[in-house]
Amino acid sequence: MKNLMGKTRDISNPYEVYTNNDGWTWKVLKKYQADDNKPYARWFCAVSSPYTFDSYDLGDVYVNSIIPNATKVA
After folding, report:
1. Cross-strand partners of 19
2. What pLDDT, in 10s, does the model give residues 26-45?
3. Best CA proximity match to 3, nearest among 40, 38, 37, 30
4. Closest CA to 28 of 1, 9, 41
5. CA-to-CA distance for 42 and 19, rounded, in angstroms?
6. Would you give the DSSP letter of residue 32?
7. Quick one: which of 5, 44, 45, 54 could link to 31 by a disulfide (CB 3.0–4.6 Å)?
């Protein structure tokens, strides 16, 4: 299966956006593998939280820490 989200995008144009009720937002900028169900699947994300003061932290995030705790909005 080809990874269609393997190139890094800008924060203003993410592949997907996830949010939760606690004020967290994950903007998916790159997916390292096509299958998100792998045990250690990870995404490169821009993450905004109540602790980032309206800015974003960039870094890799395990998929299994986002999907159960957030809702896909875009």
Report:
1. 25, 71
2. 999 999 999 999 989 999 99
3. 30
4. 9
5. 17
6. S
7. 5
